[in-house]
């Protein structure tokens, strides 16, 4: 049997994480885009939606190569954290792709992941620039950045 016809367990789990993360993020983006009024931000959402849709289409092609657990094996239970914030979604995507690449043994999957990592890096940069230009992310002012963190955390805690 040619071992390369089946993905390894560890890369299958990384593939699962990427697809689950992006699928939930995509659902969230599609729900939220209707509420976005700023035309440039709405465009960033649209670009993000298109990119994630493309990522999912490419990654789903590898699912038929995933090994299937035997009935007597315990299934892995994942409780991943999904961010509602576009910047965190992009940043986490970059991190997830970098980790997945280090776990990938299949060259074709590695090539797709590297391509998608580079796209995620560009996506993150676009969102960062948008936020920085509007003063939403004062990256070079630690004191202001921490004040925003505290304000956001308190807001989240006070929400019912």
Automatic annotation (TrEMBL):
Pfam families: Coat_F (PF07875). Signal peptide: none annotated. Keywords: Capsid protein, Sporulation, Virion. It is found in: Spore coat. It comes from the Bacteria. InterPro entries: Ferritin-like, Spore_coat_CotF, Spore_coat_CotF-like. Belongs to the CotF family. This is Spore coat protein. It comes from Bacillus vallismortis.
């Amino acid at each position: 049997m040619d071992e390369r016809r089946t993905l390894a367990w560890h890369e299958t789990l990384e593939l699962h994480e990427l697809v689950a993360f992006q699928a939930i993020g995509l659902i969230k983006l599609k729900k939220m885009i209707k509420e976005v009024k700023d035309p440039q931000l709405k465009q960033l959402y649209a670009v993000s939606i298109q990119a994630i849709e493309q990522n999912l289409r490419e990654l789903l092609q590898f699912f038929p190569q995933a090994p299937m657990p035997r009935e007597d094996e315990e299934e892995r239970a994942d409780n991943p954290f999904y961010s509602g914030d576009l910047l965190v979604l992009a940043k986490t995507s970059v991190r997830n792709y970098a980790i997945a690449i280090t776990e990938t043994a299949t060259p074709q999957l590695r090539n797709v992941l590297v391509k998608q990592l580079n796209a995620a890096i560009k996506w993150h940069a676009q969102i960062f620039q948008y936020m920085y230009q509007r003063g939403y992310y004062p990256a070079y002012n630690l004191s202001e950045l921490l004040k925003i963190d505290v304000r956001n955390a308190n807001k989240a805690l006070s929400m019912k």
